[in-house]
Amino acid sequence: MNTPAELKYTKTHEWVKMEGDIAVIGLTDFAQDALGDLVFVNLPEEGDAVTAGEVFADVESVKAVSDVNCPVSGEVAEINEELLDEPAKINEAPYDAWFIKVKNVGDTEDLMTADEYEAFCKTEN
Amino acid sequence: MEKKTVLYDKHVAAGGKIVPFGGFLLPVQYETGVIAEHMAVRTKVGMFDVSHMGEVMCEGKDAVKYLNHLLANSYDGMEDGQARYSPMCNEHGGIVDDMIAYRINEEKFMFVPNAANKDKDFKWMQEHVIGDVKLTDISDTVGQIAIQGPNSKAVVLKLTGEENLPKKYYTATINVPFAGKEVILSRTGYTGEFGYEVYCHVEDTPAIWDALLEAGKEYGLIPCGLGARDTLRLEAGMPLYGHEMTDDISPLEADLDIFVKMDKAEFVGKEAIEKMPLTRKRVGLKVTGRGIIREHMDLYVGDKKVGISTSGTQLPFLEGAYAMALVDLDYKAIGTKIEADVRGRRVEAEVCELPFYKRPKKA
After folding, report:
1. Which one of A62, A65, A81 makes the best mutation probe of the B interface by having the most chain B beta carbons within 10 Å?
2. Among residues B109, B92, B90, B89, which one has the least CA distance to residue B100?
3. In the 8-state DSSP scheme, what is residue B277?
4. What is the ipTM of this complex?
5. Residue B33 in contact with partner chain A when CB distance is under 8 A
6. Residue A86's CATH number
7. pTM for the complete prediction?
8. pLDDT tens track of chain A, all 125 residues?
């Protein structure tokens, strides 16, 4: 399992990277592996409000639909349109395949470091 | 508690993601993933542990008469080794289960019901016995492996002689040598692809599995899980019990007309099917909008609810989202535009031909 040290993680298996004032959000390697081949992604639109701990997107594998939660509150600054056409990128490179960038970041969920997240995933297995 | 098939340890060792299914613990996929496993079957060859399927032997001099009473299809005029698919109906014209029945000889048939329904089916079969027949549930003594895909004949020929192969679709050779064991070798499957199903003594299953893995290496054979089994059957437009068929869906609604012999003198459910007005039919849907229509999603034309989806997902070979559905007769014509309510969002689809995928004919 790949868990880059520079990122922060949620218990619902999203990652967050702070780029200045902007929070970049995606799905972890652990999550993509558990979900299997992803074939569809539903993203919000630019300008939508997102809330920490609430659903902002969903991903579908061949077998199931899963919600993706937003680790931070704020406003969607940009979406990764490439994912809409190629959801498999999340399986191939989960830390490059960001979902959304959030600006005006307010509340944040309790986030874990890479070490804490790896320990947490062990309890999930 | 779920049972393990005799191949359970092999699935775990091979990295299979184990899930409960039909009372058994089985791999939904291996490390290769559903899409790669699906594509292996369409383009090369894949292998499935289907040991969870039930097997019930039916013996006695009234066997043919009994099958014709129990099942909607006709079991007259069959040769030894021939197989026929049929829905098994209830008195209300719904479906108890669907299954294949093999004729071993005139007084001996083998039913292959779904794992999840096997106990219910066995009870049903016993309750509906007519004449001189004896039923035996032999499920725990039989292993089953499916080998499916264009290269399956080449793989199988490494483990048995050409003379032992069943020559036609839906026929089987009984008690033939295979990888040094004795099996029933059947030209059947649930993928829409050329292939075989091997029924063996349960204790021989691991050795046959290993022999197939080894023999299949040069032909690109990989083990495939339940995930690919489901996407393959869906792509091939094959109905699945609990989805396209239930206690409350008639075989005519499920579009299984060719397996329902209404010209037979009688069979369980015939009278109800005759009386029932047909109001809905199984159709195929191709998603034309953005999204995936899965099972149990309401279907609309404008504000009018016109049906419900029964199965659906993204299909790997066709590279599109498709679904099967039951729709009111007025909306079953090819090309009819329908919308599905996908978690509160409307997704557009169009009625299309079944099967979605048809195996290309050999040149």
Report:
1. A62
2. B109
3. P
4. 0.79
5. yes
6. 2.40.50.100
7. 0.93
8. 899 999 999 999 999 999 999 999 999 999 999 999 999 999 999 999 999 999 999 999 988 899 999 999 999 999 999 999 999 999 999 999 999 999 999 999 899 999 999 999 999 86
